[in-house]
Amino acid sequence: MEQLRKDFCNEVFKIIGKRKKDGCCAFCGEKLSENEYCDCPQAEKSNKYFKKVCRVLERIDNYIVLGTPIRKVRKSLNITSNTPVLFDGVTFDDYKVESESEKIAKEAVLNYSQNAVKNYIHGKNLVLIGNSGTGKTMLQTILCKNLISHWLFSCKFINAVDLKGEITKCFSSKSEKIVSDIVNQYKEADFLFLDDIDKLAPTEFVKEFIYSLVNYRIVNQLPIITSANHTLEELDSKFYNEVIVSRLINNSPVIVFSHQNRRFEQ
Questions:
Q1: Given 3-state DSSP classes, what are the helix, strand and coil percentages for the chain, each rounded to the nearest 5?
Q2: pLDDT in tens, the chain (266 residues)
Q3: In 3D, which of 135, 93, 104, 143 has the Cα closest to residue 265?
Q4: Which residues of 98-135 are buried (b: 16+ CB within 10 A; e: fewer)?
Q5: Is 183 helix (H, G, I), strand (E, B) or coil?
Q6: Which residues contact 117 (CB under 8 A, 6 or more apart)?
Q7: 137-167: buried (b, 16+ CB within 10 Å) or exposed (e) per residue?
Q8: Are 198 and 230 spatial neighbours (Cβ–Cβ below 8 Å)?
Q9: Which of 124, 147, 181, 230 is geometrically suited to a Cys-Cys bond with 153, CB 3.0 to 4.6 A?
Q10: Strand partners, 31
């Protein structure tokens, strides 16, 4: 666990750089006390990123203090991530590459995984678009498990239809949960995997809670990995609107799965 913390900090410093050098601000050179950080414009930007990664470091520090084995932490995070059981034990090596589209898709998701800390710091999203049965959910699941395994990121994986189901259950007289409790757990995760976002009927209620979730994460630079069967244009015109779709693709590579549905293959 100590080594993981050290590796994480090294990644952060490679991406952001250090804020202080020889007791001075690394940006403007102002002399600073031991526990002081500068508030010059460049330092302020850096401070924002350090504040964000501190929440991950605080979590790791708590594990260290409690003496929790890393294997146990990974197991717990995998359970709470709620990834599809269908893809348990599956790795990038299991994703078949028999077309240029599959090659591009796999490489893009693998690259995102390899740059996980940088993507977290900068709130970089990832959008997977294409036909059913092309491996979008599989690659999302593999990515989610890698983020947990390598860096102990907190991840949430949810199919959009299931998310709506969780929310609507709150309106039952027997439910002890409220909508904000449900939505907040997906708002606050380090990484959110929102699968099949176009499987929801685009009612005003759906648009409202999806907007609330997506906007919160964009404003707070928390990454969203989204999948859909429809094109971005169709998501805009038939399901949500430019306000939501533009946020999903903000600062995001969009990967198009143009290969055929493999579920029909024998």
A1: 60, 10, 30
A2: 999 999 999 999 999 988 998 999 999 999 999 888 999 988 998 999 999 999 999 999 999 999 999 999 999 999 999 999 999 999 999 998 989 999 999 999 999 999 999 999 999 999 999 888 889 999 999 999 999 999 999 999 999 889 888 888 777 656 656 667 778 889 999 999 999 988 888 788 878 888 888 889 999 999 999 999 888 888 887 777 777 888 888 778 889 988 776 655 54
A3: 135
A4: eeebbebbbebbbebbeebbebbbebbbbbbbbbebbb
A5: helix
A6: 8, 11, 12, 15, 151
A7: bbbbbbbbbbbbebbbbbbbbbbbeebbebb
A8: yes
A9: 147
A10: 24
| DSSP code of residue 193 | E
Residue type at 126 in one-letter notation: L
Specify the 3-state DSSP secondary structure of 78.
helix
Q: Which of 85, 91, 86, 78 is nearest to 133 (CA)?
A: 86
Q: What letter represents residue 194's amino acid?
A: L
Q: What angle do helix axes 204-219 and 160-169 make, rounded to 10 degrees?
A: 110
Pairwise CA distance, residues 19 & 26, whole Å: 5
Residues in the chain, overall count: 266
Q: Using a cut of 0.85, tell me whether the model's pTM lies above it.
A: yes
